[in-house]
Amino acid sequence: MKRNSDELLTFILDSIAKIASLHHQEKLLPELSKMCRDIVFAERCSIWILDKKRKKIWTKVADGVKPIEMNTNVGIVGNAIENNQSLIINDVQNDMRFNSNIDKKTGYLTKTMMVIPMENKSDEVIGAIQVINKQEGDIFSELDLKYLTLAASYAAESIGTILLMEEITQTQKELIYRMGVTGENRSKETGYHVKRVAEYSWLLGKLYGLSLKECDVLRDVSPMHDIGKIGIKDAILNKPGRLDDMEMEIMKTHVQIGYDILDSSDLPLLKAASIVAHEHHEKYDGSGYPNQLEGEDIHIYGRITALADVFDALGSERVYKKAWDDERIFKLFREEKGRHFDPKLIDLFIDNTEQFLAIRDEFTDV
Ligand code: C2E
Ligand code: SIN
Ligand code: SIN
Ligand code: FE
Ligand code: FE
Question: What is the CATH number of the domain that holds 346?
């Protein structure tokens, strides 16, 4: 089994073209590993990613299965990564560095192996490509090493981009959650309010038929709905009694303040958060604020967060009101179906009440 170099280049470029459009590691890593396996006619290929802080490497063996993790100071892959050195080993079972635990776990017999570290643009090692068992009992050659090194440089670039994107997304999520909690702390609302609103919103999204990805986005951003309350002075925000009309007008500006804070960012998650901040007090019949949007002109994230937020607000004690009992809440929801709230969402809520109550029970304030 040999390929000439033109064929090889075509093969790599084809694979790369396909891979370039994959923006998630769940899809990218399997494609890259298939490409690397086929380039050198190996039986298997694993792509190992380095977690620098924890000094661990991990790889996914299959979809839906937990990643395998190893310390970097054991095994051949760890060795290649720590020394940033490619390795061809054609007698694996007799290699001192071999960590036979993995074979025991997978029930696989490793005979030959090649490992190529991957570097990012700053020449830092971000992981390694490992191919196992050259087909037909052959051994890996220097030429195989050369081919796989070429593939590794492409792979490193795609993986580096994805890891960076995931890090940014993770940072955004943390930022959003903390900002949400900050907003709530100001208004003396209890810690689990944002958590519950997030979970109710996820569930409503799921029942409504949003994609899992949208549900996850909504869960991440709905805690931000009241971030604009950080711009409302204490005398109003934490007033023990009813707000008068003037005070209520000031209170209502929290939706615009929140929108302005969030909309100035280009980060996609913050954009989504800005919608929720802006539209969570719009009402289905057009009587809400700030823009009196009507029906499905209100973004689905806004319609969902509105219901989740009010459900939680009514069931909780506030400085200005006692918690309502469930019967009273459901009565209001039935009355407000098609008025305050999207009638479809109210139906879904009523048909699946136990699931919402289960969330409330899971995150009870102490
Ligand atoms: P919040 O306390 O988190 O309430 C969120 C939303 O839940 C309210 O939006 C309203 O739609 C609903 N809600 C909460 N409590 C009640 C209630 O007792 N009855 C009814 N029918 N609905 C209720 P809304 O009205 O736009 O208020 C926005 C925010 O303004 C409230 O958030 C709260 O922070 C503040 N607020 C509203 N009314 C008062 C008040 O009388 N006194 C004080 N101190 N703050 C108020
Ligand atoms: C809340 O924090 O309960 C929400 C209040 C609001 O939506 O204005
Ligand atoms: C309100 O607080 O806005 C109304 C309370 C109620 O309906 O009893
Ligand atoms: Fe609000
Ligand atoms: Fe809220």
Answer: 1.10.3210.10
**If you measure from the C-alpha of residue 309 to the centroid of ligand 5, how many angstroms do you get, rounded to a whole number?**
5
CB-count burial class (<10 Å; 0-12, 13-18, 19+) for 2: exposed
Residue with the nearest Cα to atom 41 of ligand 1? 242
Confidence at residue 227, expressed as pLDDT on a 0 to 100 scale = 86
pLDDT in tens, 138-194: 999 999 999 999 888 888 888 888 888 787 777 777 777 777 676 666 665 656 888
Q: Is 277 part of a structural domain of the chain?
A: yes
Task: Kindly state the greatest CA–CA separation across the chain.
Answer: 84
pLDDT single digits (tens) 284-295: 999 999 999 999
Structural domain tally of the chain? 2
What is the Cα–Cα distance from 262 to 232, expressed in whole angstroms?
16
List the one residue out of 9, 29, 15 whose CA is nearest residue 160.
Answer: 29
Q: Is residue 129 part of a domain?
A: yes
Axis crossing angle, helix 142-186 with helix 5-20, rounded to the nearest 10: 10
Contact 225, 299 (CB under 8 A): no
Helix then strand count (H, E) for the chain reads 15, 6
Looking at the CA of 339, which ligand is closest?
1
Asked if 81 and 49 sit in the same domain, the reply is: yes
Q: Ligand 2 pocket test: which of 226, 281, 282, 321 has the largest number of ligand atoms within 8 Å of its C-beta?
A: 226
